[in-house]
Amino acid sequence: MLFSLVFAGSCSLFELVIFEITDILSLSARRLYWKLFIYFMLALVSIIIPLYQSYSLSSFIKIRHIRLTITVILYSIYLLVFWKISVYFPIYSKYAQPQDINALTEGIGRVGIFGVMFMAILSGFGAVNSPYTTLSIFIKPITKNDINVAERKYQKTMENILMKKKRLLKLKEKYMESEQQYQKQTITQIFNIFKPKTNEISRLSEEIQELELFNRQLFQAIDELYIEKDKIAFSKTLQGKYNNILGYFFSGYCLYKIVTTLINILFNRIGETDPITYGLDIVVQSLQLNIDVNVWSKQLSFIFIGVLILVSIRSLLIQIMTIFQNYSKALSPDNIVLFLAWFMGTYFLSFVLMMRVNLPPQYR
User: Fold this and answer.
1) Selection from 280, 292, 297 nearest residue 364 by Cα
2) Residues 30-88: tens digit of each pLDDT
3) Read out DSSP for 41-60?
4) Other beta carbons within 10 Å of 108
5) If you count DSSP H runs as helices and E runs as strands, how many of each does the chain have, helices first?
6) Residues in contact with 292: Cβ distance below 8 Å, sequence separation at least 6, in sequence order
7) Phi first, then psi: what are they for 344, rounded to 5°?
8) φ and ψ at 33, to 5 degrees?
9) Long-range contacts of 187-195 (CB under 8 A, 24+ apart)
């Protein structure tokens, strides 16, 4: 339920950004909804989810008062870190006035620190990984023989798992038969009967688990081989060539953003013109077109933000599915869902508040 609430709140914040651009609803109504949803998201990511996560982490303790004590300790540690993080990372500008400091800005500032860190990690990963996933020159050459070899290995491992499971089943049947006759044996004889069989059962069970894990990895590798093969076929089509050209464009855009970000950091600059307005202005002046740059920059910004929202949500959900697949066996499902809900809420809250940098100044 918490995950659904966070997702719904994040989508509502994105809708408010679109409302700002298209001037839907009155200014006072939009401001009211902004405050309501920001308070709602802050309460989820900074209070409710961490508290429930602390309680979930102590779920292995069966004694109630000890479990509550551990929960209070874990939550207190989180609150201490959440409060003290502003000491090491400033959350206010040096030009901030005392009247600008309130509970809302305090909460957003602290959550924003985590959100910006997540955004930097994901953006850096995306900027580096994007050319490898969009440009055809990075597609691995896959042959039919590579897929056949991987599938034969997968089939052989499956046969080995089935053979070991049959053997394990027979051992368990023998173990049950021996257990029924234990009353007729002495204690020493019973120990000698059960010990080798239980050891072999444990060993076989571990081997089966390892083989099943290896087989899952093989299955994923085969799936990736088929995906790469489809990419090769798609890259030879007209749409694939068009996407490849777009890949070069977005790779150049990523490089442009990296360079401008470095310049802004080194010279303590703040971007006055968004890339869309700046690029449109260059095109209009070069081609001597008679169009209103401000009007068209509004529409292009709207389209750009829509694409940015869809790509961001899609990328984050793909990463969430990857985490579920890789760690669902090792970690508690409740802990994973709570962490991902907190991560998603923190990320989207910071992302929406920083999205105004990519908009024309009148919509920031």
Assistant:
1) 297
2) 888 888 888 888 888 888 888 888 888 787 777 778 888 888 888 888 888 888 777 77
3) HHHIIIIIHHHHHHHHHTTT
4) 19
5) 11, 0
6) none
7) -65, -45
8) -65, -35
9) none
Return the pLDDT at 194.
47
Residues of the chain with pLDDT under 70: 90-102, 119, 122-134, 177-198, 253-254, 257, 265, 268-278, 291-332, 355-364
Nearest residue to 18 via CA among 357, 273, 280, 303:
303
Residue 269, C-beta contacts closer than 8 angstroms, at least 6 positions apart: 263
Contacts of 62 (CB under 8 A, 6+ apart): none
3-class SS of residue 6 = helix
* 147 vs 224: CA distance, rounded Å: 10
8 Å CB contact between 193 and 174: no
Give, rounded to a whole angstrom, the gap between the first and last alpha carbons of the chain.
32
Q: To 5 degrees, how large is the angle CA 298–CA 303–CA 307? A: 145
Compute the distance between CA of residue 307 and CA of residue 321 in angstroms, rounded to an integer. Answer: 21
**Tokens 């953003």 belong to which residue?**
257
362: left (phi over 0), alpha (psi -120 to 50) or beta: alpha
Give CA torsion, residues 264, 299, 35, 352, to 10 deg. Answer: -40
Dihedral angle of Cα 215, 219, 224, 225, to the nearest 10 degrees: 100
How many CA atoms within 13 Å lie on the side-chain side of 186? 2
Q: How far is CA 106 from CA 78, 81, 110, 253, in A?
A: 16, 14, 6, 34
Counting every residue written for the chain, the total comes to 364
Q: Are the beta carbons of 38 and 10 closer than 8 angstroms?
A: no
Question: Is the CB of residue 301 less than 8 Å from the CB of residue 12?
Answer: no
Query: Closest Cα to residue 351, out of 5, 14, 46?
Result: 14
26: left (phi over 0), alpha (psi -120 to 50) or beta: beta
